[in-house]
Amino acid sequence: MKTSLRSIFLIAAWSLFVHMPGIRTPLMDYTAYRQCQTASMARNYVRHGMHFLSPELDTDGPPVRAGTEFPVYSYLLAILFKLFGIHDILGRQLSCLFAAWGTVFLYLFVRPRLGEAVAFWSGIIMCALPTHLFFTRTVQPEPMALWGLLGFLYYADRSWILALLLGALAPLLKLSFLY
Fold it and tell me: Angle of helix 5-18 relative to helix 116-128, nearest 10 degrees?
């Protein structure tokens, strides 16, 4: 079954478009504490060496080793910080990219099961849901975890290796993705 590149492009473009309002705002919204934790972990990777298995959070004193989620999102953000400087917008853009990619996975998962029209509108509507919009524009691992879950669903009947990797990544990033 041939995938419609036009639909994929429109869904990804729509997702990126609806995420633009507020993309440049500082990390001062509803989940500011959690976003600052993730951003500080990425910043400390840059400042103290890119040691993947030693993430550090800022606390009341010097940074301390963190025991949060699997730090792949923070590490990717640290790579962006290293390349382009430490800017809040990079974390928001990374989240928006994973949100758009996850929406494409949703489209690709639904299309062979329910048809082109249902798949297209599933992606478009998911992008516009207020809760989805808010949490996929924050500097947190939620968008990457959702991307992993949707990627797992898409690859479940195509490639067991990719399904296994993406299916394991989602709960590593957010434990609640187990249920």
Answer: 10
Q: Alpha carbon 106 to chain centroid distance?
A: 14
The sign of the dihedral angle between the CA atoms of 97, 103, 104, 106 is: positive
Task: Please give the Cα distance from 91 to 96 (Å, whole number).
Answer: 9
65 backbone dihedrals φ, ψ, rounded to 5°: -60, 135
CB 46 within 8 A of CB 78: yes
In the block, residue with structure tokens 């298995």? 53
Q: What is the pLDDT of residues 145-173, one digit of tens each?
A: 999 999 999 999 999 999 999 999 999 99
The tokens of 141 are what? 């691992």
Residue 49 has pLDDT above 80, yes or no: yes
How many whole angstroms separate alpha carbon 119 and alpha carbon 112? 9
What CA–CA distance (Å, rounded) separates 162 from 167?
A: 8
Greater model confidence, 100 or 25 = 100
Is the entire prediction scored with pTM above 0.85? yes
Report the percentage of the chain scoring pLDDT > 70: 98
| DSSP conformational letter for 64 | E
Element holding 46 (H helix, E strand) = helix 32-48
